[in-house]
Amino acid sequence: MKALTVHQPWASLLALGIKHWETRSWRPPADVTRLAVHASRRPPLAGWEEMLRHYPEGVGSAMRPLMEWLTRRGEVAALPTGAVLAICNLLRVSPTCGVGPSPHASRLGDWSRGRWAWNLQVVHVFNPPIPARGQQGLWEWEPPEGRYP
C-alpha cells in the first residue's frame, strides 16, 4: 500500500475526516486509489491550536473532535508523530484551479495555481497509531498483520 507523510496537525485532521483535501505540487500515479496517512516525525508547529482557532468560521468548530480526542487521551498538547494514523481512499485528483474548496478547506492547504488537490475519504483509523518511518513522496507501507482488515 502507498503511504503519504503529512506534517501535524494536518495528518490528524485528515485521519479524523476534518480535512478532506490534501494539496501537493505533484499528481499521484493513476493506479493509486488507497493511501496510508503517516504523521511525520517533525513536531507540530508551536501554537497550532491557537492558529487553527483563528481560521474562518467552520474550522474552529471542526477542530472540536480533534481537541476532544486529544483530551480523552490526556495529550492536549501532543499529536502523534512518526506513525501511520489512518487509511484513506483517494476519491479524486484535480488541479487546484478546478476545485472550488469551501472557505475552511481553502485555509487547510496550498491552493495556489499549478498544484494538485487530492480528495481523501477515511476508511480506517488506527488506534493507537502504528509507528513507522516515513519519507517524502509516496512510499510503500504494509500494515502489521491483524491491524487492518
What does this structure look like?
The protein has one domain (2-130): Hypothetical protein (Archaeosine Trna-guanine Transglycosylase, Chain: A, domain 4, Roll). The model has no long low-confidence stretch (mean pLDDT 83). With 149 residues, it is of the alpha+beta class. 17% of the residues lie in helices and 32% in strands.
Layout: helices, strands, pairs:
Layout: E1 2-6, H1 10-15, E2 21-24, E3 34-39, H2 48-53, H3 59-62, H4 64-72, E4 83-95, E5 116-131, E6 138-140
Parallel strand pairs: 1-3
Antiparallel strand pairs: 1-6, 2-5, 3-4, 4-5
Shape: globular
Structural classification: alpha+beta
Question: How are the strands of the largest sheet arranged?
Answer: 2-5-4-3-1-6
What value does the average pLDDT take? 83
Strand content: 25-35%
Q: Quick one: biggest sheet? A: 6 strands, mixed
CATH topology: Archaeosine Trna-guanine Transglycosylase, Chain: A, domain 4
What share of the residues lie within helices? Answer: 10-25%
Low-confidence segments, given as residue ranges, are none
Number of helices: 4
